[in-house]
Design goal:
By secondary structure, the chain is an alpha+beta fold. It contains 13 helices and twelve strands. The protein is about 45% helix and about 20% strand. Strand 4 and strand 5 form a beta hairpin. Helix 1 runs antiparallel to helix 4, helix 9 crosses helix 10 and helix 11 packs antiparallel against helix 12.
């Protein structure tokens, strides 16, 4: 991190006060990652921290290209003959994390910090005039559900003109111009960024699903939002406009057809409790017994009617009475276990109901 950027960040925290995280919680921003590009830049002297990579032609040995780069904790810079490219996350620069998306004031502050840091290193870029080459517009949805419960729904939803694929802790649909990603934000912060999510002061049991709309090219940003330069994001009206753009794209691509499939959704908490109980009680062959409880046993009883009918079938098939008694007693215990846990999880949701829940969290 550049010395000036480090000092300015701490000055900013001092101005806001010790309750910085509480202040950030009240900000309703939308912006996550930004990639900014410019053909104009001026090197005043040797840029502090800048490294150069030279690419040679294998046949002639001549230099084909030279790319210079700078990596800091808060942003990255690439320089070549085509110009300058800055990758940054405004919220992370200003707040220390990117859980709460940036609004117009955070974006302006972050851009000023990066611009000033580059100047102290010996590089001048007309920062406010930099073009937006990638823009991530995001929204956090708060739920008591395990975020994995929505994965089955997302697999049912075929986004228009987009290819679907798995994503760490979530699901992504997209093409070369834009993409939409749904993922477990708290897990990402803990596992990838090693951030203590307890500092966010969320209610106990609350999980967060993030919807991330990514405009991946300069022309995609301009076509979908009408914005070209980063300075256009410095006012509140721009954030309101992006809200409308976000909703329009998600409605047109991902949430365009309500799936009326009435399949009952898988309940992770129920299955964890069932497996843990079986593992503790039976030790050996616990997985076989869990699989039996999760589908095979209820379907079998529905087919043959009662355990007594099963005893009759086993007897006619030649099993000894001691074996019949042991097996059917064990099955009766398992049926009681399934019934007792089922009573705790009566809130069954269909795919269509989860669709409504996800839509209301992330789009409405």
């Amino acid at each position: 991190m550049g010395t000036l950027l480090f000092i300015r960040q701490h000055q900013l925290f001092w101005k806001i006060g010790k309750q910085t995280k509480m202040v950030v919680r009240e900000v309703k921003g939308l912006i996550d990652t930004l990639i900014l590009t410019s053909k104009e830049f001026e090197i005043k002297n040797k840029v502090v921290g800048l490294k150069t990579k030279t690419i040679f032609n294998n046949d002639t040995g001549e230099v084909e290209a030279e790319n210079s780069f700078l990596r800091t904790d808060n942003y990255t810079l690439d320089l070549n003959l085509n110009g300058a490219r800055v990758v940054m996350n405004p919220s992370k620069i200003v707040n220390g994390h990117n859980f709460y998306p940036a609004d117009h004031t955070v974006i302006k502050t972050a851009c000023d910090l990066v611009s000033e840091d580059l100047q102290t290193r010996g590089l001048i870029i007309p920062f406010d005039e930099m073009r937006i080459s990638r823009l991530d517009v995001v929204r956090n949805g708060f739920t008591k559900r395990n975020p994995r419960e929505f994965n089955q729904l997302l697999e049912f939803m075929n986004a228009k003109r987009m290819e679907a694929r798995k994503y760490p802790n979530g699901y992504l649909v997209g093409n070369k111009q834009r993409a939409v990603c749904f993922y477990d934000k708290l897990t990402e912060l803990k596992d990838i960024h090693h951030f203590d999510t307890g500092a966010l002061r969320l209610d106990n049991g609350v999980n967060v699903i993030r919807a991330e709309l990514r405009f991946l090219k300069t022309n995609a940003v301009a076509k979908n939002t009408g914005f070209n330069r980063v300075s256009e994001l410095y006012n509140a009206d721009s954030i309101e406009h992006l809200k409308d753009c976000y909703k329009a794209v998600l409605k047109d691509t991902v949430f365009r057809d309500k799936n009326q499939h009435q399949q009952v959704q898988f309940n992770f908490e129920k299955e964890v409790e069932l497996m843990a109980y079986i593992r503790e009680k039976y030790k050996r062959n616990a997985i076989d017994k869990y699989l039996l409880c999760s589908g095979g046993l209820p379907q079998l009883i529905e087919k043959i009617g009662t355990i007594e009918n099963l005893k009759y079938i086993m007897d006619k098939a030649g099993y000894e009475r001691s074996h019949i008694y042991r097996i059917t007693t064990e099955l009766q215990d398992l049926l009681k276990l399934v019934a007792s846990i089922d009573t705790k999880y009566t809130d069954k949701h269909t795919i269509a109901q989860l669709y409504e829940e996800l839509y209301n969290m992330l789009v409405a």
